[in-house]
Structure formats: structure tokens, C-alpha cells
Specification:
By secondary structure, this protein is mainly α. The chain has 14 helices and 5 strands. Bound molecules: tryptophan. The site of tryptophan has 14 residues, from strand 1, helix 8 and strand 4.
Amino acid sequence: MSIALTGDRPTGPLHLGHYIGSLTNRLDMQNKYQTYIMIADTQALTDYFETPEFVRKNVFQVAEDYLAVGLDACDIFIQSTIRALPELTMYYMNLVTLARVVRNPTVKAELKQKSFAANAPCGFVCYPISQAADITCVQAEFVPVGVDQLPMIEQANEIVRKFNSMYKTDVLKESQAILSPTSKLLGIDGGAKASKSLNNCIFLIDSPEVVKQKVMSMYTDPNHIRVSDPGELKGNVVFHYLDAFWEEKEELAALKAHYKKGGLGDVTIKQKLIEVLENIMQPIRERRSKIDKKQLEEIVYAGCKKANEKANDVLYKVKDAMKLNYDIV
Ligand code: TRP
């Protein structure tokens, strides 16, 4: 079976944006590939290095979210437990120029957004190199990600080619991105992206009451004052969410037509959305209620053990290609 690797930075609980952006894709993949899911805590530290406890706190939250959505056929592991990663990263650093990492479009965009801009720590600027180590340490052939991660995969493949040709080996494998079918989810406030830092998302851990309250607060059409008024779909967050989550496309088309014509109130469409979301979230809540902490830890630790074994094997072969192995230890 081909190997796939994917992952998230543990900087908060997962939300509906993750659900349509990557989690449904992974649910589909876990039966087709041997799937590793990395909780990228070391990478999260490249911008949360002042508050490691914050990252630590979110590691098991994210692991619990994975299991709650049904990702139970994957190996979930914690990046910082993989001993081979920093060593692989060190070797790869020599194969990449500083100019090349700074040119990485995602890093470039992130540098612009961050407060540290001109004083960016090396750890941050070089994270694409450590991500190349992530991808290669399990010999991943497929990497399910969003479009913003394409430059990381391209850069990892450059490193793979350079390493293999320089040290005359084929131990490292090139990988291929698998893009999620769905694009970004808007925030409940109509903002361009649902995100934890903007506090405009519905978390998978939200209770039915919170979901209801968040949907009721959603932005619709400011000119749709009376029920009889015709309503606008463009920029209407409720319909954006219905588009993303409601499978009954014919019913949705009928609802849209009715809304446009007039005679359909905002409360009615919001209630429909609550029902649609609850159909997705209820099974997640139920699975979550059955997960106990000890069992969750055991699952994650088993994933760490398995990923470590694989990564140690790859590291051994990498060092062999570089004639760096010694007979001691
Ligand atoms: N960079 C990814 C993100 O920010 C997380 C990540 C780290 C990752 N290592 C990875 C994704 C390896 C896929 C493969 O979401």
C-alpha cells in the first residue's frame, strides 16, 4: 500500500474549516493508503516558541479531534517525538540555499503577516526544510494538503532530487500533493477565512447550544428585512455554509430559489443549517464521548513508536548513502 503523510500544527481545536478542508479527505484516504498523521508541534513552535505550553496543551486536543471524526485507521504521531527529524533536517539544510527558502511563496507571505518580519528566527524561515524531513522520514508518496502547502512539497522534492543525485542513492522518495476538493470556508462573521485566531469558527467540540448560537449570529443579507423581501445569496454566510455542508443539492437549489424570490425568513434558513450541521456533528460528539484519555494516549504513543521505527530506518539509509554510519552504538 502506498504511504501518505499529512498533518496539522496543534494551535487550537479543529473546526468546521478543517472538516471540509482536510478531514473528510483524510477519512477517504485512510482506507486507500497507509496514512500517517503528524501533529506538527515542532513546526508550531517556530512561531509559538515563547509559549510551548500552549502548543503542548493542543497536541492531545487535536489527537482527540482526529479520533472523534473517525480517523481510526491512521497512525497518529507527535512530530517532536521523532528522533530522526532534527538530524535529517540538519543534513538537508546543506542542500538548500538561504535565498531559496526565503523565496518560498508561503514563507514569504507568512513573513509579511508576522510581527517579527525582518527579525524572523532561523527556525521559522527554515521550516520548509524540516517539513521536507517530515515528508521523507516515512517515505511518503502522497501528501494531502491545502494549496498553501504546495510550495513545501515542491521544495521537499527539490531536496529529494538533490540528495539522491549528490549521494548516488534512491533512498529518498519524491512525493505528490493531493489537494482537498473544497476551498476555504468563510468565517461565521463573513470574514475571508474561518480561523481560530479570528474567533469566527465553529469548533468540532462546540455543544449544540453553541452551534445554534453561532449560526443564529451569522451574517445574511442586510437588505432582507421582511420575510417577504427578496433575499441575496452573494455574501450570505448561511448559504455559503449550506453549500459546503448540505449534500441534498436539489433541495438546496429550491431553498435558494425561494429565498431569492422572497417569502423565506432568515430564521428558517438558519434552522435548516443548524439541522445540517448537527447531522455532521452529532456522530462526532458521540464518538468523542467514548474516548478515554488513557486510551487516546496509548493510540498516539503507538503511532509515535511506529513512526520512529520507520524514520530511524530511513535515517540509517540516509547516513549510509552519505557514508556517515559508524560501527559504534
Ligand atoms: N505545514 C503544515 C500546516 O501548516 C503542517 C505540516 C507539518 C505538514 N509537516 C507536514 C503537512 C508534513 C503535511 C506534511 O498545516
